Amino acid sequence: MSKYTRIAITTAAVLATSVFLSGCGLFGKDKEALDPPPKQNVSHLDENEDLDSLTDTETSGEEQVEAVMTDLYLIDKNGLVVGQSLPLPKTNSVAKQALEYLVADGKISDILPNGFRTVLPAGTNVDVDIQDGKAIVDFSEEFKNYQASDEQKILQAVTWTLTQFDTVDSVELRVNGYPLTEMPVGGTPISEDGLTRADGINTGFADVVDVTNTRPLTVYYLAQGLDNYYYVPVTTRVSNLEEDNIKAVIDQLVEGPTIEASLMTVLDGDALLLDDPTIKDGVVTLNFNEEILGNSETKEISTETLQSLVLSLTEQAGIESVAVMVNGDGGLVNEDGEELTEPVTRPEKVNTGSF
């Protein structure tokens, strides 16, 4: 077993959040995460979708507020940047609205999850213009009123919040119309090519001596919140000598997190790939030993194990879903006893509350 904190696979169903799992996808639903905002119809929408297609409705004479589930990257109680999928009002400017909900003491106040805080200073005004895949973000002067310790977190939260939209690949930051070449408080350099997810999130390179001979890799671990468990993306670095990114992801999940004791892995330390992973038509197939299972007799794989695998592996280009086998056989079942007859796709939204 790893020296890092772990969750026993056999108790994951008791400890972790209640998550609905189907053979073709994973959709998280946390227990008692938040008190639900009143009367909301929730939809999922990309930046380039037609918002006019969403219409307000009434039920029993009461008007319902149309809401769109949007990923907002916030700072948790451990100082980590974590996406939380929250219902925001329907708007024609979803990218701008998403950043407005990152402003402290602002619009997010009524739906801010317990144990989380926003990344942008109070009073900050924001405008967003998307051109050829780049989101040009113009902040007001109040943007400069942040703590230096939050500088990297601001860059990561803004970048990952905006790049959830299909029309955004990179982000350029400005203050009062002037492009930033470095952050105003701590002086973190900003590339003229813009910020992207390739820059990483929750980076922990302190134990890496030779950065030039390593490459970044993002995996998802589990963290315990005040009301629930949630998934945290962490960008680490792996040796360039380890050529296979799929194997590298599995190794990182088995070894466990190295930057934060509050993070946990649900993969047993003895879990082992028996064959090289194969990729065909966007599906990666993994053949594990029985240590990947929560219950070897029933061939049950825990939701948390499968979720961590799917979230981490679909970060890799060209991978859309994951098929898991044990000792060369399929026929695994989820925690509801349902057979996983299809590869599992990435959930549309990751950390969702009960709305």
TrEMBL record:
Superkingdom to which the source organism belongs: Bacteria
Database matches in PROSITE patterns: PROKAR_LIPOPROTEIN
Coiled-coil region(s): none
Pfam families: Germane
Keyword terms of this UniProt record: Signal
SMART domains for the chain: Germane
Acidic residues bias: start-end ranges: 47-60
Annotated InterPro entries: GerMN (IPR019606)
Disordered: region residues: 32-60, 333-355
Limits of the GerMN domain: 95-184, 246-335
Signal sequence bounds: 1-23
Identification of the protein by name: GerMN domain-containing protein
Organism: Lederbergia graminis
